[in-house]
């Protein structure tokens, strides 16, 4: 009897009865009407795009997906990703191309971390599929056998500004998806019966993600707008709306609604509270340790403190030392290869609903490729942490392409982003633990060269609190730095002391939020004389941040030392000197200020 009931349920999912099919058609038409009314009322929107996907949405939300309608954030719900921002959509996608990567992150979390039944559905437009990040995501989904992921391509022929090159040649989309290792179905996107069948078939596939290639028409069901150009993003004229709505209403045959199926409640309960550092950093003052290495070791230590910490790598683990985390927590390490846009998208997907504490690790210069993904993550108020190593000309022989000299400007522009710039191994470990406990997006900037440990293991650190590490009653100039330049400042301080010139030295620790109070109070102790030194371009870096912080203090004058122009390959000390941020240049700058 039980087997017969199960067989009947499967049959209903694959081949609904005629009454259910009609209700699904009617729901699709109601969705069209809602989109017309909403866009006419607001005088803005995309009724033609909504209309092309109406049957797809009807079948997904009222027949296929399992979720609690009254609880859109229930962790057991099936997930849905679309380039729009609504209560039941977990992430803002923006201009398009980012949704599938985020869906990969959700699916990866469901399969490998939660080991739960929920599925992830991602609806993409054919125009959107021209974004390279979509194909990065297709490669990722196949590589990790995400059989709980279903991508639906709404192939409606028309892009934002005109006809797409492939038009309605759905066999091309099919071949492309199959070439990336996806199980693929082609379907008429207007046929609810066919959609029900292929979505059911997709649930039976093992060890492969599924792509559903649905042929549709933009403006489907709207006279004179169906499959017509120049209607993208335009509501229909109000004077035509009532007549068109009446026409669509005449095709509705029932008043029934369908309740979504309840989810399978098998997501493990997790509680991610603040993670405490179980022991002080294991470094001694004077040890030489690169902050990139200290960061890798700190991530591994963090992973022992909480089993929901994950690290995503962009094929740089042997340089960023994230391989230490992989060695100790291989089941929570995700290799994303050289696909930085997708790596950030996957991290955003993994972190949704607070299911993981995600750290993205790569060279800081490579994160510029993913700026749009980072920006949209901030708009979605996502909690992810990004680590950028090999910053500045101190990278040395690797050359200009590897030198991040714009990253501080990039992350300073991200709203509510916390920026850590640790200067030694001890402060790096604290930065990692603080980032793990911080709401919103965090960025940790690390360096390649080995530098001295300057803090004791017992030193405490707080976000937005700088460290005054050299001070005296006869200080003449306040010099501010972070990372490798802090060590150049300390060397300069030693040299200047031989000439009885005392300088005050500040380690910022966090660039955002900036400790303006400490900067201003110490600057006033040195008659308003301030020098900033940074391994970064002057635009958007430490100097500009400090200038903004003291802008209401007319007696404080900031002199900036930063990397001007395009750098080249060379050894670290040679490049620091060549681009004016070495100890020697700091000594000269201090003397110039004092004699001016």
pLDDT averaged residue by residue: 92
Query: Number of helical runs?
Result: 21
Helix percentage range: 25-40%
Strand order of the largest sheet: 8-7-9-10-12-11-17
What is the CA-atom radius of gyration, in angstroms?
28 Å
Q: Gap between N and C termini, in Å?
A: 95 Å
The percent range for strand residues is 15-25%
Low-confidence stretches: none
Structural class: alpha/beta
Q: How many extended strands?
A: 19
* Largest beta-sheet characterization: 7 strands, mixed
Question: What coarse outline follows from CA principal-axis ratios?
Answer: elongated
In terms of topology, how is this protein built?
Elements: H1 2-14, H2 18-42, H3 47-52, H4 54-64, E1 79-81, H5 99-114, E2 120-125, H6 132-143, E3 149-155, H7 170-179, E4 183-188, H8 192-203, E5 210-215, H9 238-249, E6 288-290, H10 291-305, E7 309-313, H11 317-320, H12 323-328, E8 333-335, H13 340-351, E9 357-363, H14 371-379, E10 384-389, H15 407-412, E11 418-421, H16 425-436, E12 442-445, E13 450-452, E14 467-470, E15 475-481, H17 484-497, E16 502-507, E17 509-512, H18 516-525, E18 529-533, H19 542-549, E19 557-561, H20 572-578, H21 583-595
Parallel strand pairs: 1-2, 2-3, 3-5, 4-5, 7-8, 7-9, 9-10, 10-12, 11-12, 15-16, 15-18, 18-19
Antiparallel strand pairs: 6-13, 11-17, 14-16
Summarize the structure.
The protein has 596 residues and is of the alpha/beta class.
Structure overview:
A seven-stranded mixed β-sheet has the order 8-7-9-10-12-11-17, with helices on both faces. Strands 1-2-3-5-4 form a five-stranded parallel β-sheet, sandwiched between helices. Helices cover 39% and strands 16% of the residues. It is an alpha/beta fold and 596 residues long. The relative contact order is 0.09. β18, α19 (542-549) and β19 form a beta-alpha-beta unit.
